[in-house]
Amino acid sequence: MSERYEAGMSVRRKVLGDAHVDRAEAAKTEFDAPFQQLITEGAWGTVWAGNGITLRERSMLTLALLAATGNFDEIPMHIRATVRTGASREDVVEAFQHVAIYAGVPRANHALKLAKQTYAEMDEE
To answer: Boundaries of each Carboxymuconolactone decarboxylase-like domain copy (predicted)?
Structure first.
């Protein structure tokens, strides 16, 4: 694999945790392997591995962008990742407040609902 892939896999494991990445890798097939390589190199090996901002800031941006664009499926995964990125629950609330003003209250409301559910699950674990 490429150097960017290796860097991406390292950051992906740091942010999402080994258990999550191991499950994803075990589920990978020939069909989705090119896509998995793309996101590992592009998202994780380029964007998340950059030095310009912290993992905490990237976490907050990612959550806000997911909510703002209505891509809710990955919000629980990224809420769980805040434990490793350093984004606090207060940071997440602030990010979703920005979503409410700049992208719409319904999207922010749904993102907050998902965050509350995920934090509740995390508190029980």
So the answer is: 35-116
Q: What is the pLDDT of residue 1?
A: 79
Statement: the pTM of the whole predicted model exceeds 0.90: yes
CA distance 11 to 117: 26
Residues 38 and 64 in one domain: no
Domain extent, residue 12, equals: 1-50
Closest to 86 measured CA to CA, from 54, 111, 50, 115: 54
Residue 27 identity: A
Say how many domains are in the chain. 2
With b for 16 or more beta-carbon neighbours within 10 A and e for fewer, the 109-122 pattern comes to: ebbbebbeebbeee
